[in-house]
Specification:
- The chain is an alpha/beta fold.
- It has 2 domains: 66 residues, Alpha-Beta Plaits (2-Layer Sandwich); 280 residues, Aminopeptidase, CATH 3.40.630.
- Helix content is 40%, strand content 17%.
- It has 13 helices and 12 strands.
- Strands 5-6-8-7-9-12-10-11 form an 8-stranded mixed β-sheet, with helices on both faces.
- Helix 10 links the parallel strand 10 and strand 11.
- Helix 2 runs antiparallel to helix 3, helix 6 packs across helix 13 and helix 10 packs across helix 13.
- It starts with a helix and ends with a helix.
- The relative contact order is 0.14.
- Bound molecules: 2-acetamido-2-deoxy-beta-D-glucopyranose (NAG) (2 copies) and zinc ion.
- Its cofactor is Zn(2+).
């Protein structure tokens, strides 16, 4: 009886391992390369019409990567051909590639453990949620005069959503601008949280830019969507949304796209009212605790908050408002010049095989409008410099969906160069 039980458990475990990624059987990923803005807009229409899942937004003459479900495969291919949009099959057996990526990630994790040599967090293996959560608590304990840990709420499934406040003056010097970095709202974009934890490292553990501590107060939220983030590690690699089940958003199709859930032109464009969609806007603006936390931070520190960055991947882009119609805000000149300054400093320390950064209004760069995004909400609320970073990715070989972990530290370092440039521009304003 006892042995039977063990055998049963072992069989279950084995089944769970084999079943991983099976939901992506029959999916195909395509590299798409529009040569005109018209073609770019056609791709945007396909995204809405066929629920094409965009992994990396294309821009004019810069390739993007999209995932297509088997049911609409032929329709999407036909539309691409009819519009003479250049495309190629990127991966036809997605499960096999994800299995390979799992093996690489597991190996890197073991290697990183062997090498960690006193470093608190690995930057050559992906960081799972509990590891980041321990790190935030540990930093707050070790640097009590500089760092405060805040846990404003738990996620839908009960994980703590935490951020650090970093300040040499306990946030009491109200002349100091506040800078807010947020990561991990889109669960599958694994390169996002390490750029925020690296900023913590560079402010607290290895501060080589003392002016950034002296002149600014910082809010660092590495994982705003811990449920989704953990789910991509344990279940569905391409999960993007939260994991909530409320209202019409039933247990069959949980989750809301956090970057469509803000109260900015909510659910008007580039969103879906279907809970099963990856761009489901939710039952109402701020239906999600994960976005309410970000909203409340923004309002708590206005008007001192001068710079807000929300970290996404991938595409090497720095995007600014307005994202629902491509019109420009009255602060567009500053948004553009500071965006360019950040991109230039990133490109200076980037790798030759990474694309250089593109800077611009989000609709004008990716040809796709979407309502309810964090970057637009923060700007509307009064944050003068508000951006979405699309961090770098590589589509070749094993790096198709998941930047090889050997590049995590590089991305963290170069993104920090961008953050430093942005902060120093504020100091001059
Ligand atoms: C989707 O279309 C591509 C290109 O025509 C083809 O290679 C692939 O096998 C198709 N996949 C499915 C599931 O039909
Ligand atoms: C701190 O950062 C500098 C500059 O990147 C680097 O040279 C140095 O080795 C780092 N020190 C520690 C203790 O990590
Ligand atoms: Zn994203």
């Amino acid at each position: 009886m006892f042995i039977m039980k063990i055998v049963g458990i072992v069989l279950l475990l084995a089944a769970a391992v084999c079943a991983k990624h099976e939901e992506y059987n029959g999916w195909t990923s395509y590299a798409v390369n529009p040569s005109t803005f018209e073609q770019l807009k056609v791709i945007g229409q396909l995204v809405d019409q066929y629920e094409v899942d965009v992994f990396s937004y294309p821009t004019v003459q810069r390739e993007g990567l999209v995932l297509v479900r088997p049911e609409v495969n032929d329709s999407v291919v036909k539309a691409l051909e009819e519009n003479q949009i250049s495309y190629s099959v990127h991966v036809s057996d997605i499960k096999a590639v994800l299995d390979q990526e799992d093996a690489v990630n597991a190996r890197r994790k073991v290697e990183a453990r062997g090498r960690s040599g006193g470093r608190s967090l690995p930057y050559d293996a992906y960081q799972e949620f509990p590891v980041i959560d321990d790190y935030l608590q540990d930093i707050a304990r070790r640097y009590p005069n500089l760092v405060k840990l805040v846990t404003p709420a738990n996620s839908f499934e009960g994980r703590p959503i935490r951020y650090l406040k970093i300040s040499t003056t306990n946030f009491e010097d109200t002349r100091k601008p506040v800078i807010f970095l947020e990561g991990g709202i889109h669960a599958r974009e694994w390169i996002s949280p390490p750029t925020v934890t690296w900023a913590i490292h560079k402010l607290v553990e290895n501060n080589t830019e003392p002016d950034l501590l002296r002149d600014f107060d910082w809010i660092l939220l590495p994982v705003s969507n811990p449920d989704g983030y953990q789910f991509t590690h344990t279940n569905s690699r391409f999960w993007r949304k939260t994991r909530s089940t409320v209202g019409q958003n039933t247990a069959r199709c949980p989750g809301v796209d956090g970057n469509r859930n803000y109260d900015f032109q909510w659910n008007t464009v580039g969103t879906s009212s279907n809970p099963c969609s990856d761009t489901y806007a939710g039952t109402a603006p701020f239906s999600e605790i994960e976005t309410r936390v970000v909203r409340d931070i923004i309002h708590e520190y206005l008007p001192r908050m001068k710079l807000f960055l929300t970290m996404h991947s991938y595409g090497s882009m720095i995007l600014y408002p307005w994202g629902h119609d491509g019109s420009l805000s009255s602060n567009a000149f500053a948004l553009h010049t500071v965006g360019v300054a950040m991109a230039e400093d990133i490109d200076k320390v980037s790798l030759p095989n990474f694309p250089s950064y593109t800077v611009g209004n989000s609709v004008l760069v990716i040809g796709y409008a979407a309502a309810g995004a964090a970057e637009d909400y923060a700007h509307l609320a009064g944050v003068p410099l508000s951006y979405t970073y699309e961090l770098p990715g590589l589509r070749s070989g094993l790096n198709g969906f998941n930047l090889d972990p050997i590049y995590i530290q590089q991305v963290a370092i170069e993104t920090w160069a961008g953050i430093v440039a942005g902060a120093r521009r504020i100091a001059q304003m």
